[in-house]
Write a structure and sequence with these properties.
Elements: H1 12-29, E1 32-35, E2 42-43, H2 51-63, H3 70-74, H4 78-88, H5 90-107, E3 112-113, H6 117-127, E4 131-138, H7 139-148, E5 157-161, H8 174-182, E6 190-194, H9 197-206, E7 210-213, H10 219-226, E8 230-232, H11 235-245
Parallel strand pairs: 1-4, 1-6, 4-5, 6-7, 7-8
Antiparallel strand pairs: 2-3
Length: 254
C-alpha cells in the first residue's frame, strides 16, 4: 500500500520521511513512468509569452461573431476558452483548438528542458522502465519538441490532445489509460508524474500512483490537496529513487 503524503499533518522531518517512504514504495512497484509534458519534460512557454495566447483564441471567436460571456472575456485559461468554443459549435471549437496548437508549436522553438530530465530518462533506461508522455498540450507540439531534442526514441509513447474534445483532457483518466495500453501495462502499474492538480486527479481516476512535481515550494500544498501520493521538488529525487530500487518489477529475477 502506498504511504499517502498528508500536507500539514506532520512536522517537517516526519513529512520528509513520509515523502521518501511513499516515493520508494511507488517506484518499487512501478513498471513504467507517465510524464506530463509542460513541467516535467520542459517549460513550453519559458521564453514565449503565454499571456497573448488567450487573446488569440478569443480573436478566433470574435471573427466568427461568437458572443462571449464576461468570464470567457477575462479568463487566461485556454482550455476554458476552448470548451466554450466547443459549446458554440464544432467548427468554432476546431478553429480555436487549431489556433492553440499553432501557439504551442511556435513555443517549441524556445522551450526550456526540465532540469535533470536526462538523468531521469537514464535511470529509467537502466532499470528497464519505459516512459510515455500524457499531455493536454497538442500532440504535434509534444512530438516536435521530442524530435527537436532527440528524445523521440527515448519516449516511445505520446498521448496528447488531438482535437477540441475537452472531455478527454486531464483530469479525465483517458490519456493515462491510453498511454498505459500503449506500454502494454495496466494504469496501476504506471506512475504518473505531473505538476498540476489535474494531473494528480487524472492519475487517481485511472488508478495510477501519482507523483507531484513541485518545482516551486508553493506548489506542494496544492498537489498534496489534489491527492498526490508523493511529491518531489526535483526530477533528480525521482532518478535517485529509481536507481536505489533497481530494476522494475518485470525485470527483477523471480
Amino acid at each position: 500500500m502506498i504511504n499517502k503524503v498528508l500536507a500539514g499533518k506532520t512536522g517537517p522531518m516526519n513529512a520528509q520521511c513520509a515523502t521518501n517512504s511513499a516515493l520508494t514504495d511507488i517506484v518499487r512497484h512501478a513498471r513504467h513512468l507517465l510524464l506530463d509534458f509542460d513541467g516535467p519534460v520542459c517549460s513550453l512557454f519559458a521564453r514565449a509569452p503565454a499571456a497573448p495566447v488567450a487573446g488569440r483564441l478569443r480573436a478566433v471567436l470574435s471573427a466568427r461573431g461568437v458572443r462571449m460571456s464576461p468570464a470567457i472575456e477575462e479568463t487566461s485559461d485556454w482550455f476554458a476558452i476552448m470548451s466554450f468554443a466547443v459549446s458554440a459549435g464544432l467548427e468554432a471549437g476546431s478553429q480555436v483548438e487549431a489556433e492553440l496548437a499553432r501557439s504551442e508549436c511556435d513555443a517549441v522553438a524556445t522551450a526550456e528542458p526540465a532540469e535533470h530530465l536526462t538523468d531521469l530518462l537514464a535511470a529509467c533506461d537502466h532499470s528497464g522502465r519505459l516512459v510515455a508522455v500524457v499531455s493536454n498540450n497538442s500532440v504535434r507540439a509534444v512530438r516536435q519538441y521530442l524530435t527537436r531534442h532527440n528524445l523521440d526514441q527515448r519516449i516511445p509513447v505520446v498521448v496528447a490532445r488531438t482535437g477540441p474534445d475537452t472531455g478527454k483532457l486531464k483530469p479525465s483518466p483517458h490519456f493515462i489509460e491510453a498511454a498505459a495500453a500503449g506500454l502494454a501495462a495496466a494504469p496501476a502499474d504506471c506512475a504518473v508524474v505531473g505538476d498540476s492538480p489535474a494531473d494528480i486527479r487524472a492519475a487517481r481516476a485511472a488508478g495510477s500512483p501519482a507523483i507531484g512535481y513541485a518545482a516551486a515550494p508553493s506548489d506542494r500544498a496544492r498537489l498534496a490537496a489534489a491527492g498526490a501520493d508523493a511529491i518531489v521538488s526535483s526530477l533528480s529525487d525521482l532518478a535517485l529513487a529509481l536507481r536505489a530500487t533497481g530494476p522494475g518489477p518485470e525485470t527483477r529475477p523471480a
